[in-house]
Design a protein that fits this description.
This protein is an alpha/beta fold and about 200 residues long. The chain has 2 domains: about 5-70, 434 Repressor (Amino-terminal Domain), CATH 1.10.260; about 75-185, 3-Layer(aba) Sandwich (Rossmann fold). It is about 50% helix and about 15% strand.
């Protein structure tokens, strides 16, 4: 992990004259939580980053950018049992996420095995996958890595309410577009560095 966010946080805290305990008290977290953020062992989620920005008196985008750059080559997966959907969707994801490693799966179990061996930053999941629902796959992926951002994909808007109860970051109707993906990236629970599109 790149040390951009940990170093930035420590510098800002020190500049404000705050000890780790003082910052923790204002953040309503424990001192070890601040220590883990400053060591790079963990990154705060988007809500905590916004709170940090307010306390430290900096623009939230500045801290989000520092956090994003701490995960330099994120793994992104797309799971859909229709090969034609993957064939159309993967190039869209690669264009929207130029710094990511993008991998597609038609089989949910293969995606699970991949997630066990790789840190998945973002997963685009079809809701209706052969032999497993996207909701069940979401649950398994979050058990493997609670910091995985999940965005559900479907052709049916009726599923959108069900999707919100799963811990997902977003919901998209097919077919996906670069603009649509970029809009979803603004709402990720755990931001990461997406690079610059050409």
């Amino acid at each position: 992990m790149n040390q951009t966010f940990p170093k930035t946080l420590k510098q800002l805290r020190t500049k404000k004259g705050l000890s780790q305990q003082m910052l923790a008290d204002q953040m309503f977290v424990t001192r070890p939580t601040i220590a883990r953020w400053e060591s790079g062992a963990r990154l705060p989620d988007a809500m905590m980053i916004k709170r940090l920005a307010e306390i430290l008196g900096v623009n939230v985008d500045f801290l989000l950018s520092a956090a994003a750059q701490s995960d330099e080559c994120p793994n992104v997966i797309m799971v859909d049992d229709r090969k034609v959907v993957l064939a159309g969707g993967l190039p869209v994801l690669e264009e929207a996420l130029p710094n990511a490693t993008v991998t597609g799966f038609t089989n949910a179990n293969e995606a699970i095995e991949y997630a066990k061996r790789n840190n998945i930053s973002l997963a685009f999941l079809d809701i209706e996958i052969r032999n497993m629902s996207g909701f069940d796959l979401c649950k398994i992926l979050l058990e493997i890595n609670p910091r995985t951002n999940i965005i559900f994909l479907t052709a049916y808007s009726d599923y959108s309410l069900d999707a919100w109860g799963t811990g997902a970051s977003g919901f998209m109707l097919k077919p996906i577009t670069v603009t649509g993906v970029k809009e979803q990236l603004k709402n990720l629970r755990y931001p990461f560095f997406i690079g610059e599109a050409n």
